[in-house]
Each structure stands twice: as structure tokens, then as C-alpha cells.
Amino acid sequence: NPSSTQSALIIPLPNNTNLYYVFSISIVDPSTGIGATGLYYSVVDMSLNGGAGDIISNQKNIQLLPNSTEKLFAATASNGQDAWIVTYAESNPGSLSFDQFYAYKLTPNGIDPSATVTSISTTTQTTDKRGYLKVSPDGTKVAMMTQFYVDLTNPNEAGYGAWLFDFNNNTGVVSNPSRLNFPANYQAYGTEFSLDSRLVYVDLNTLGSGIIPGERLLLQFDTNAPNFQNNPITIYQSDPLDSTDDVTRGALQIAPDNKIYYSRDEQPWLAVINNPNGIGTLSNFQYDGLALSPGTNSNEGLPPFYNAFFNPSFGLVEGCSGTTTQFFADDIATCPNTSVVWDFGDPSSGTNNNSSLVDPTHIYATAGVYTITLTINTPSEVFTSSRDITIVDTPLIQNVNDIIICDDAFNDGVAPIDFSTTRTTALGNQDATIFNVTVHSSLLDAQQDFNDLNNNDFYQSGTYYVRIDNRNSNGCFVTTSFDIQISENPLPVPIDDLITCDDFSNDGIELFDLTAAAIQGLGTQNSSLFSYTFYNSRMDAENNQNAINQIYNGTNDEVVFVRYENINNSGCFAISSFSLRVISQPSIPILDDFQICDDVSRDLTELFDLASLIPTIENNQLGILTTSFHTTQQDAESDLAGLNFQYQNLTPQQTIWVRLENNDLITCYDVQPLVLEVLPKPIVSSTPDFSKCEEETVLIESSPGFDSYLWSTGATTQNITISEQGTYTVTAIDLNGCEDTTSTTVTNYFETQILEVEIQQFTLRENSITVSVTGDGPFEYSIDNFFFQSSNIFTNLLPGYYTVYVRDLNGCDLKTAPATIIAAPPYFTPNQDGFHDYWQVTAIETEPDAQIFIFDRFGKLLKQLSPVGPGWDGMYLGNPMPSTDYWYRVELNDGRSFRGHFTLKR
């Protein structure tokens, strides 16, 4: 920020010729919210950009601290190598109340973002960011200017003005605030130390908060003088009566030529303190001591520098008695034609008390204060630097025990750790007021004394380090290591009952492998981290006594307790429990072949009702059982591809497999084969259907060789005798119980009946008889019951009386019917010789209602005969009639009539 007091500072990375850290202050008005505030850094690599250097892209404008003041200095650390970067800022971010020093350490490893924070007191608290912050060349003092009028009655303004502090370049701590008093109505802005770090110069101004020209006052404070805070020496004061010499605030800055330059706003020159180490006028102040280039005017500020640039000195890494102390000469010692002489202030070391090396080492045998003097001889000048150092006793460190604890219920690998015992053990009998014990999470932190770990904070497993240093010398320390082992706690989850199948004795006692239950109890925890043992009681488990084997002969409903221990810490344990269950072993009885008789298809395949076997298979055994059927033993063992209970066999004799499972445990089952067999359907035959005579009794026969028979009549014999027509069924059953049924239908022949005897008559030779019958036939006919013919017509018959015989060829029946052929005789001889004495219609008596009339040739009725009488004797009215032809007419009752004539012969 171009308006900040100390806007930037460039520091080389220790032990690196290419990298430079650029620290900058960015200040904005918080009311506008413009820009970013605070302390930032960027890293420049001079090997980039063809040797011209450039900012490393990912290390640009990195914020270290938000909203700091405009104050910034850099000081060499006590080891002569590292650097402290210090600013003044808020303890409460955003409050704009500045009350803390923040010291960041730059080492060969880079900047440590964890600051050493020093809260001085409310007396130095300010709300103004402006004013310089400087460190003395020897790095022991700090001067801070805060611009504004000092009003000790107002707490918000009491911290303004000029302050002097002590600075510990070993720890970065700022301490011992002391106000530098000056006349009222002045405001402090610029400041600088003399080269010997004794004198403090303070720039003061009277008007306009320092930005409007006013009276200037330059004071000198001699820190070696008594009550120096209240007795400054005036080096320069503008003329109160001459406004032409009024200027604004200005910076004071020591330069490489060991002079202090003083900016004069809008002037073409700088004021110069030619001899900064001189007291009062011996300082040789020159108001217009350095003319600037033509056309160039001075402004309010001057660039600040790292204090190591101005006083060739030396650094060291402090050792302890009996250990190596490392010294480092200023870089000027490496210039051409330059030599160095070291005096380590240790005459007892003999010739080792001196060295001409640039960076030598020395071992001090005993503790004490030693004066080190470095003389640097350059071609143009000799620089001498002296410093007292304190070599302290070498601390001793005792071995400390590893901290082995159990994790908490979160098992997150972190736990609160109390290092009190560790610190006490490491210190041993040494004086805690002389030796300081710290604990660190890394060896580097221990070596650099960073991040002392707090008691009872949360830490994870790993190697930690104890550092003991002499409080009088931070460079004198020893370390040892120890391990924190946060052992994971077993956190058992509920364990399922351990279930096994009983053997076929079903005695409720069985051998268990308890391992699986123990592993289940660990849930998602890594089982390789824990051991587990088993017990019969919780008390035994708690006391870790009377353990039982993991292969254990247990009983049903027995409770087993398991103790989990972390294998690296047996104190991390937990107890859980589970129950043993012995499930009843189902057993399939020996099964008879499941036989079914084939049906009428005779294809030797049938539907088997397998469910009908379940009661036999389960046989009232204990437990909730499931029966299933399978085509292969493997399927039955695996409980795969169960068959439907209505199952059709594949072969006439097929073996399937029965699985009987206890539902409490799928591995508790029995498997046995079952033979399905379709028995051939027997074939039974019987007498074919036939007919019989109605009165006939006949025998019906069935096939032999069956175990039993059952007729529809109820008969159980192979054959039966029947007399009635009908259908007779027989079921024949073989030895396997398979049966076949057949039937015989018996019908009676129809009864033969002569329906009609038709007679052709009233002829002499051409008479015939035709017989019409009903019945099954075939029939034979006879009129003499001796000769039978197949024709039902008899011809060429003489008149007379006949018996017609009809019989069927089945031999069942013989039927007869009378037949009469009526005919008129062609003549008669009424001469009383006993032959043909009467004329009568032959067989007319069979028609008793017939009327017979005899006429002469003239149609005269001569006689009416009775069909049952003897006939006409040839007489008419007592007189014989003459021989001649006579006519007759026969009228039958059915309406037929016959006419003819006959001859009367005498």
C-alpha cells in the first residue's frame, strides 16, 4: 500500500542465494471495504526469468495476518541465521484496536505461519495504524511510534506516542514497554536506532496529524542514561516563528554508510545524522545534508531494511557445556581479500580459543559467560563485533515410557493425553526452574522448539519427542522420543445366537466353534487387532479366568461370554455374550417305494401326490419342519429346484430325493432317496358280449391269475353264472393292488312270435301258407315238425288242417300256430256209399261265423250250409238234385268271400 508507513520489507531466505521473501503491508479504510488488509508475503526466485528473478506463481500474496498496523521490522534471530518478522496488530480481529505483537520466524525451511504472539498491556493499545516500528541493530530493543496526540486521560489515546521495548531475538517475544515522553501537542512518526543500538531517535510533528506542514522536532534518547525516558536531547527543532521551515512528518532510516537519513517532505534534499552514535551535537545533524538529483523531491517515507544489513556481526547456534557451539560470521567476511579472527573468550581452551574460519565451532568445557570477539579485516576497513554469550549446563534427559492407552468410545484414533508424567520422568532430578521440558509431535518441532503440546488435548498414535533445554539458552537442548499408542477399543455389536444342528441322538448337546460368533461381535472393526477368549460367566470374563476352548461342547440355550482384548494393549477390552442353540436334527424314516398303478393310458407316467407323504416323513418330530422333494441328491443337499407336490414321473421307476429341514437352521436337515414307481396296469378280459335265450342260465368268465375279483353283482369269484340279461362288470386286482375292469353285456334273444299265418286257399293245388314271425332269427319253418325249411312260405298245399312250426337257429324256442286251408271240393257223390256223400267246404268249421250259400246255375239259392254241419247232401226240398254243376259263395266274417262251382255226380 503506497500510503502505509512501512509498506514492504525484503529478507533473503537463510542459507539460500536464490530465494527472497517480500513482506508487505496492505492497509485500507475498513469503512470502505476496499482491498485486502494485513500482512502478506510473496517469494521471489532470482533463478527465474533468465536470472532477472520472478515471483513463484503459487507463492504470491499469501496472507499471514489480517488487518495489521502499518508497522513492520525484521531482525536477525539469536542463531545468526534465522530472521524474525514482527508487526503490531489486533488481538480481536476487526476491532481496529491494536494491542499485540506478532513475530513470525523465517528459517531455511521457509516462513512459519504460527506466530509468537505477545500481548503487552492496555497501555500501548492504539486505534491508529500509522507510525514506524524499528529494531536495534543488535536485535535487543524495539521502538514503536504511533501517530496521534497523546492524551493520558483517554484510554483510547493513551497508547499513542513513542514506546521502547525489549526484544528477545531467541524467542521473538517483545516485552517491558517504556514510554518515551516528549512535549505536548506533538505526534510521533519516524524513529531509528544508532548503529551501536544505544541511542533512539524520534521524529515529531505538530499539525494536521502529521500530514499538514507544521513544527518539526527531532529528539535523541540515550538508553544508557538514567531516567532517559523523560530526558531526551533535542537534535533539531524548526523555528516556531518561521513558517517557511514547516514540513510534514518524516522517516528516519540508517543506511549502509552507517548514517541516518531523515526525510523532508517536498524538499530536494534529505537531512543527515552523520554520526548516529554521537550524543547530542556529536551526532553531527545536517538539515540539508544530502542533495537529491535535480528535479527530485523527498517525500514522507524511506525504505526500511533488515537490521542485519548495517552492522557486520556474527551469529551462533548456542551450545551447552561440553557440546559444540556453531558461529557464523557476517557475509562480508566472505568478500575478496578479507580475513577474520575469532576470539571465543575461553583462554582455558588454549589454541582452540582462536579461529580464522568464517564459520567455526568451539566447545566450552564448563558453563559460564564468555565474551566473543569477531574482527573482520577488509581492504578498506576493520570491523569488530563483540558479544557476551552464556554457556549453560548441558541438560540431561531420562528415557520416558511409551504412553499406551485405550481409545475412547468414538474409536477415532485420537484421545486426550496428559504429558505431566512424561515431562517429570524426562526431567529427572534436574531443577525445573533452570531446565524447561516441552513435548512435540515431530523431531523438527522439538529441535526448533515449536508447538509445545498441551496436556489433555487430543492426540493420535505416533512418535513424539521430549525436549529439555536450559531456560538460559534455548540453543542448549537434548531430545528423546517416545511413542503414543492409542489402542483401538473393542466395541462389540450384538452377536446372533450361535446355532448348530444336533446329531441324530438329539440330546441337545453339540460341539460348537465359537470363533465365528466372536468375529461377528467385532462388527466392522479389524479382527486382526483383537484377541478373544470365551467364558461360562461374565465374572470369569471380567476377571480373565477359567477360559473355555473355542471348540466347545455346549448345550441348548447356554450363554457364552466373550472377552475382546486389543492385542497390543490387554487393558483395552470389552465383554459381550451370545447364546448357543442346539437345533433338533430331523430324520427321515426309511421310506417305502411310492407306487402308483398306471391308468388306462398305460404310458407308465402318473401324477404323484408327494404331499401325501409329508406326515409320514415328518412323523411328529420336534421343531418346525419343511419337507421338499428334488430330482437329484445335489439339489436336495443344496435345497435347490424343489419339485411340485403334484409331480409326474419321468421314468417308470424313478428315484427322487427328500429333504427334511428344521426351519430354525437351514443346515439342519436330512436327505434320503425315494423311489417313485408306476406299476403296469393289468389287463383283464371276460366273455365277449353275447345273447342268450331268455330262460337260459349262462357262465361269464374273466382272466385268470389275479389276486382278487369283484363283479358288479358283488361276486368275488373269477367267473359268475347269470340268468338275467344285462351288463356285468368285473374288476380284477393283481398282487400290487393294480386293477383293470371289463364288462360283458348279455342280452336275451327276442322271443319268437308268429305274427300272422297268411293262407292262400280255395284252390285245389295252389294253396299256400306264409308265416310272418318276430324275433332275432334266423328262423326255420316246418308244417310237420320234422322237415324244416328256411323259407316261411309253404306252397302246393292241399286244403286241410296244418300246424306251422317256427324255431330260431339259436335253439332258444319253438313256436306253433294252426293253419287251415279252406277250399271247396270240386265234386261230391251223394249216393250214400260213405264216400263224398256230402258237399261241405273243407275246414270251414274254423270259421264258425262263415255263411255258405249253394246256387243252381240260375242263381237260385238251394241251400245255406252251417259251417259246422255235415254239408249239402244234394237234396232240395226233399228231392235229390240232378247231377250238374252248382255254384257256391262263402262269406267269411272278416269280409272276404270266395265263389266257385262244383259238380254233383250221381
From TrEMBL:
Q: Which organism is it from?
A: Nonlabens dokdonensis
**Pfam families reported in the protein's UniProt record:** CHU_C, PKD_4
User: What InterPro entries has UniProt attached to this entry?
Assistant: Ig-like_fold, PKD_dom, PKD_dom_sf, T9SS_type_B
Q: What is this protein called?
A: PKD domain-containing protein
Gene3D superfamilies tied to this protein? Immunoglobulins
What SUPFAM superfamilies does the annotation carry?
PKD domain
Residues covered by the PKD domain: 328-391
Which CDD domains does the record match to this protein? PKD (cd00146)
Q: Which domain of life is it from?
A: Bacteria
